[in-house]
Design a protein that fits this description.
CATH superfamily: Glycosidases
Largest sheet: 8 strands, parallel, barrel
Distance between the termini: 29 Å
Number of domains: 1
Strand order of the largest sheet: 2-3-4-5-6-8-11-12
Helix content: 25-40%
Strand content: 15-25%
Radius of gyration: 20 Å
CATH topology: TIM Barrel
CATH architecture: Alpha-Beta Barrel
Order of helices and strands: EEHHHEHHEHHEHHEEHEEEHEHEEEHE
Structural class: alpha/beta
């Protein structure tokens, strides 16, 4: 077994397995612009929420996708994970827009034109207003509505899709939206969070069955995962701290790790860790490095989460479907990704089946309640002109993708 602390003692590049995939990701509402018919647009404009600013035009990726996909290919990546917007394709119950289906087919065609494999996410945080008005993710019928939508998309686009993701981070929608009240619908209830988790799990199962009935492309779900560690001053408090951590796992991860056992892959999405003492979560210490998001700078978290996902899913193959950092210092971005990729290599060396790495995000975008402040992109965006400027991290990670081997941070 390889210790997580023994990586990169050699000066020669560490190679990834043949066929390992390299991509970046976006989400429709964060980059397309003017997705007015979903619950998030309404939430952005609702008085009293903590959303810093509305999404508006964002990156105008809806119109500029040809140049963005060409740029992605030129940088050296081989896949692109993006989402289709449910509220565009089905603007009202049972009314499907052929024009919007045609739009997303053109996005797929642009990917194939540049030898980019499209990884299509069917739900990335946003829900049509008409679904939200019926109770959203605490209404059992939403699982069936989502399965119907997923089947329609698969029948319409499936021949061009390389991989499917049913739902992006359902645990974040259920927790932040139904327990903490900071995402739509703004509910603050443990019972509502538990019900939303249940409906999301059913939605995944039903959508998986619907999509797989018409498409042979690999399918999975993605989960927001954090490394959870115990930090107690007195060892007599360890059991209580572990209990708090296990409660968090139970509400945030466990049901989704269980439901993923029938999938072709599992998408791990990790940015940081959270520490627990006997009272629950504790904030980063004052002397810890933190990111624009307030997260602890912790690239090692990815390795820990991969190992947990591998164990808890019963060895479903892993794809890192999101990992990245919001920073104004691009050298720090390279440092973070380098550390995260060392952890991926450690896991591979220990026999864990990891099939790809996806950086979040291709470009700076609308970061939900934080607006346009956090800069996750390997490509900068000028919000006045929509000019894209690749950062040094884009070229660095692109060279890693081309060579399928981890380069030094200064290469």
């Amino acid at each position: 077994m390889t210790s997580a602390n023994t990586a990169s003692t050699s000066t020669s590049p560490r190679s990834f397995p043949a066929g390992f995939t390299w991509g970046t990701a976006t989400a429709a509402h964060q980059v397309e612009g003017n997705n007015w018919n979903n619950d998030w647009w309404e939430w952005e404009h609702r008085v009293g929420t903590r959303v810093k600013e509305p999404s508006g035009d964002t990156c105008d990726h809806y119109n500029l996708y040809p140049q963005d996909i060409a740029m992605l290919a030129k940088l050296g990546f081989d896949n692109y994970r993006f989402s289709v917007e449910w509220s565009r394709i089905e603007p009202e119950d049972g009314e499907f827009s052929q024009a919007e289906i045609n739009h997303y087919r053109k996005v797929l065609e642009a990917c194939h034109e540049h030898n980019i494999t499209p990884v299509v996410t069917l739900h990335h945080f946003t829900t049509p207003r008409w679904v939200a008005a019926r109770g959203g993710w605490v209404n059992d019928s939403t699982a069936d509505l989502f399965a119907r939508f997923s089947e329609k998309v698969a029948k319409s686009l499936g021949d061009g899709v390389g991989k499917w993701c049913t739902i992006n981070e359902p645990n974040m929608v259920s927790t932040i939206g139904y327990l903490l009240g900071e995402f739509p619908p703004g509910t603050k209830s443990r019972e509502a969070r538990a019900k939303a988790n249940e409906v999301f799990c059913q939605a995944h199962i039903k959508a998986r069955d619907a999509v797989k009935s018409v498409s042979s492309a690999p399918l999975g779900i993605t989960l927001a995962m954090q490394e959870y560690t115990i930090n107690v001053d007195d060892e007599s408090h360890r059991k209580a701290a572990e209990g708090k951590r296990d409660m968090a796992w139970d509400g945030l991860e466990d049901c989704f790790l269980e439901v993923a056992k029938g999938d072709d892959y599992f998408g791990v999405q990790t940015y940081t860790r959270e520490r627990f003492n006997q009272d629950g979560r504790i904030q980063p210490d004052a002397d810890m490095r933190t990111t624009i998001m307030g997260y602890e700078f912790r690239p090692q978290a990815l390795e820990a989460c991969i190992r947990r996902a591998w164990e808890k899913t019963g060895h479903v193959p892993i794809i890192v479907t999101e990992n990245g950092i919001a920073t104004s210092d691009d050298a720090e971005r390279i440092e973070y990704v380098h550390g995260a990729l060392e952890g991926v290599l450690n896991c591979i060396q220990d026999g864990i089946d990891i099939r790809g790495y996806t950086y979040w995000s291709l470009m700076d975008n609308f970061e939900w309640m934080y607006g346009y402040g956090p800069t996750f992109g390997i490509v900068a965006v000028d919000w006045k002109t929509q000019v894209r400027t690749p950062r040094p991290s884009a070229s660095w990670l692109g060279r890693i993708a081309r060579g399928n081997a981890l380069l030094p941070r200064n290469a």
